[in-house]
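If you are new to this repository, start here. Below is one unmodified record pulled from the training split, so you can see the exact layout before writing a loader.
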Amino acid sequence: MNIPITQSKEWQELQQDLNEECFLETGKDFHYLAIVKSTPVGNYLYLPYGPVVNGKKGIVPSYDSLNNLAKKTNAIFVRIEPQMVEYTDNLPVKPVKSTDLNPKETWLLDLEGTDDALKAKLPSRLLRYYRNASKNGITITKSHAKEDIKHLIRLQNALAKEKGINTFSEEYLKTEAGQDFSTIYLVKYQNPDTNRKEIVASGLVFDDKTTRYNLQGAQNDTGRKLHATGILTIQLILDAKEKGLKVFDFWGIAPEGAPANHPWAGFTNFKKTFAGHEVKYAGTHDIIMNKAKYRFYQLLRKINRLLRHA
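And here is the target side for that same chain:
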């Protein structure tokens, strides 16, 4: 079974650092990490990119285990995100489709093979910017000091204000940055006008035994002019290759056929300039345990969305 980082023991430790109650279960043909989430109506269980199963034979045993855990924790429902597309069609009960939390589609780049073979998969324009970076006053450093996440937070907050989008809380990002699987990257620019170095872009990646996940990133206006995100992405990929990892996960693209004004359209176009391939997952679904409370939970969600829009 290929266990994603969000279903790992390390992710359990991250959740515990965030004071979240969670359960890690492994059976013969299944594995899952279930996080207990609280609502005004009651608790539910959330499995980010889980459960993981060993083919279709693991679906019913994983459901039985989750059903028992839901009863034990008095969960109203179980929110699943299996990466196996056929999972939801083969459950003993029909789950309810929910809004996708983690991306349903993503873009993966294979890192195996020679260095030259990998570089052939990278956009030539970005490679040119990367090779000329030092001549243009750009340097990239990496850090495992969680204090350095402040630079990414600053850039993300500015971007969120500009675009009117939500970001993760400062506490959450600091906790992520404090994990052993995290690395913070900082793109610095020696500004010839001020003769000072400024951080124009930053990124946060997670590594497991096989994969580098490119989860968080932001740049400012100067960074955009310098193509800082493109240069940084090249560095992230080359470092992952040097580390011996097999896959670079760009972490989410817009669904196939999405309109040009889709919020992820620009990100998706950028990611697809790399010669990778698309992967589709099952998406986010709810297995209902208490129908009455679930209906009330959905009503409260609808009211909250209306109030936010208002």
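Two things worth knowing about this chain: The domain at 105-280 is CATH 3.40.630.30 (Aminopeptidase). The mean pLDDT is 94.
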